[in-house]
Amino acid sequence: MADRKLLDYVTAGLDRGDNAERQERLLVGLIEQLELVHRAAYLLSLSLAVQLLGYAVLSFVPGARAVVEFLGARLTTAVIISTGLVLAVFQALVIGNRYVKI
């Protein structure tokens, strides 16, 4: 009887260790994927900020105002779409790794 309890205790400990190892591997993979998403979002934000700065500078040139207004509308669309894409990728990563207990 005591041997059986000891065996059950050791087996449960090994199962918990295996589960923790599996969770650790899944979390490492998720973190690597999220780092890629973060890097892409950062580069996208940086490029949009540079474009906004360029539009701000061009807005002081009277002949370029029509071009700036046209490109500004395109930039607004790009910001909305890129924000949605970043959120969709993040959600897909989290749902794809739903077996990770966060």
Structural description of this entry:
By secondary structure, the protein is mainly α. It has 2 helices and no strands. The chain has helices spanning 2-58, 65-96.
Write the layout of secondary structure elements.
Blueprint: H1 2-58, H2 65-96
Helix pairs in contact: 1-2
Main traits of this protein?
mainly alpha, 87% helix, 102 residues
The total of helices stands at 2
Series of H and E elements: HH
DSSP strand content: under 5%
Question: Main sheet, how many strands, which sense, barrel?
Answer: none
Give the averaged pLDDT, no decimals. 80
- What is the straight-line distance between the termini? 38 Å
Measured as a percent range, the helix fraction is: over 70%
Oligomer kind:
single chain
* Uncertain residue ranges: none
Q: Using DSSP, what is the number of strands?
A: 0
* Apparent shape: rod-shaped
Class derived from helix and strand content: mainly alpha
Rg over CA atoms: 25 Å
In summary, what is this structure?
This protein has 102 residues and is mainly alpha-helical.
